[in-house]
Amino acid sequence: MSALLRCAHSLRSVEGLRHSRAWEICGTSLLQCCRSLHVDSQPHTPSLTSSYVHGTSSISLLPLTVGQSLDSTVQRWPDREAVVFLQDGIRKTFAQFQQDVDKTAAGLLALGLKRGDRLGVWGPNTYEWILFQFASSKAGIIQVPLNPAYQVKEVEFTLKQV
């Protein structure tokens, strides 16, 4: 078995890397090798020409909004299932989901919310949560997710940030 394979097999967890036998044997060469397995090229200093820094992957972010991406997906696969919530008996195709998103986005705007406004959403993982994520994005409204498990101080902190 190669030294690299021995190193990889002796790793127990990412958190324990520096205390592992692999680190003693291979040190930083293991990190470089493992890192090279997950990227197409070595890191470089990016020249900023967009609103995000594109790292070493050959797959870039799409130059589309969430709404545009949904519209494009609906054109390609209108009848494929987009969302399934078995416990709630909800199954939506991309076309059905898009209709719900458009109606909800229009409803948010009809309530008086406008592009750039913030909308706090407090709730568990449900169809409505995903629906509001897409609808608020499509309407240009910034969704502020609030976890129902937050304690009072965490909710206060989150609300003060927006």
UniProtKB/TrEMBL annotation:
Residues 71-161 form the AMP-dependent synthetase/ligase domain. It catalyses: a medium-chain fatty acid + ATP + CoA = a medium-chain fatty acyl-CoA + AMP + diphosphate; octanoate + ATP + CoA = octanoyl-CoA + AMP + diphosphate. Keywords: Ligase. GO terms for biological process: fatty acid metabolic process. It comes from the Eukaryota. GO terms for molecular function: medium-chain fatty acid-CoA ligase activity. InterPro entries: AMP-dep_synth/lig_dom (IPR000873). Acyl-CoA synthases catalyze the initial reaction in fatty acid metabolism, by forming a thioester with CoA. Has some preference toward medium-chain substrates. Plays a role in adipocyte differentiation. Belongs to the ATP-dependent AMP-binding enzyme family. This is Medium-chain acyl-CoA ligase ACSF2, mitochondrial.
